[in-house]
Amino acid sequence: MGTTAVPSGGTPPRDDAPLADPAEIRRAMEYYADRGWTDGLPVVPVTESYLAEFLATTSRDPDEVLMPMPQLNRQCTVRLAAINAALAGCRPDYFPVVLAAWDSLTREGYATRGIWQSTTGTAPLLIVNGPVRERIGLNSQGNVFGSGFRANATIGRAIRLGAINALGLRPHQLDQATQGTPAKYTACIAENEEESPWPPLHAQFGLDPSDSAVTAMIIRSCLHIEARHTTVPEQLALDITGTISRTGALIHETISALVVLSPEHARLFARAGWGPDDLSRFVYEHAVRSRAELAAVGKDAIARQTRWRLPAGHPDAVPDQAQGGETPDVVRVLNSSGAVLVVVAGANNAGVSAVVETFGPRGGPPPVVRVPDPGRPG
Amino acid sequence: MPAVSICTDSFRVPAQAMAQAYGFPGFEFATVPHPIASLDTGQIEARARDVLPEVLRILGLES
Q1: ipTM (interface predicted TM)
Q2: Tens digits of per-residue pLDDT, A329-354?
């Protein structure tokens, strides 16, 4: 029997609420859940006609492989990406962003090398730039890592559901994450270009600011920087550096990070004449640990094969690169200034920023993928 | 060359899932108690000694 939806905030029922059969809706949701086609939350039922609306937003062949996963005998195609975007609650006009996200993740490379099966428990983070942010309502301002915005919530979720359903990466089975991260539900932010003093991320790496783009990263943690106390750029940069160089993050010989500055912090640097490259360089130069600090936590050498950090006394241990350098007791935790990327996101209301710990040593340009403009599908 | 896969018991279910993904649902592999990465040389040697009969059985060399 059809009935109107009950308002979620305790207000009286509205006349414009759609009529729906709640029993049928629940039956469809249970059907998907029973088959393990969800991330634990309800999904949107997908019909062929609804799927066609997603596929109509691109000229790409539905059978084109976006992400091969040969070690699992699986792959994510355009069609599978569209099904999972629809399941995730995306609107069809979000789909070009989802496609660019898959392309960026494939170019990034760690996912196809098996990191999504790893005990480390990483998640993809998507950064969206350009006019598409406003066109589809992506949040770049307050609560940018939080809930409340359909485009952010569902585009990130589209990748997770694709990993589960297209690639077969279910927890306790092929996804062996020891703990995982809350970002595995969804992690998609837009850069706050309007309140940033600097060129946006995609323009830092060769695209035109009027282009739209997605840049994907594989992340482990998102750490909070509270720094409302200073107007001195070096103090703020050292606060950020101290967070990046924590020993718990040092799995490989060197690590990498994305600094997500609030507009207030970005402007603090800009007022002092710093650009994003200046911040990256400062962090690179100051992100060091002493040999004694590393020895105290058993990370003062690296493994011969994996180059993961371990104690100098371990049978597989070989010296790290710093050991053979001019200052063997001062160990850099980053391989270059390029291992630190900088974007601006969040509200312009406090000295609060974030360090996102990205997986791998990195250092090269990130995988920035253009999102085709509407009317120019491709 | 004949080979036997060995993993810790924590990875039994993912290993079975990988075998299934490759079309060998009954693929036999040996397991040792978790963990491995944090053991010292003596403890690693003990794990190897303990698992050897199972490795030989999978290779068909038990008798």
Answers
A1: 0.85
A2: 999 999 999 999 999 999 999 999 99
Best of A173, A178, A316 to substitute, by most chain B Cβ atoms within 10 angstroms, is: A173
Q: Do B21 and A74 touch (CB under 8 A)?
A: yes
Nearest residue of chain A to residue B19 (CA atoms): A72
Q: Which two three-digit tokens encode residue A211?
A: 């282009």
CA distance A311 to A297: 8
Q: Does A306 touch chain B (CB under 8 A)?
A: no
Q: How far apart are the first and last CA of chain B?
A: 20
H-type helices in chain A, by residue range?
A: 22-34, 48-55, 78-88, 95-108, 132-136, 150-165, 201-204, 233-244, 263-271, 276-286, 291-296
Single pTM value for the model: 0.94
Of A1, A162, A9, A143, give the one whose Cα is nearest residue A86.
A162
Helix, strand, or coil (residue A128): strand
| Residues A118 and A176: beta-carbon distance below 8 Å | yes
DSSP letter for A178, please. Answer: S
Residue of A164, A167, A174 to mutate, interface with B, max B Cβ within 10 Å:
A174
Residue B10's identity, in one-letter code, is S
Query: Which residues sit opposite A335 in a β-bridge?
Result: none
A174 and B18: CB-CB below 8 Å? yes
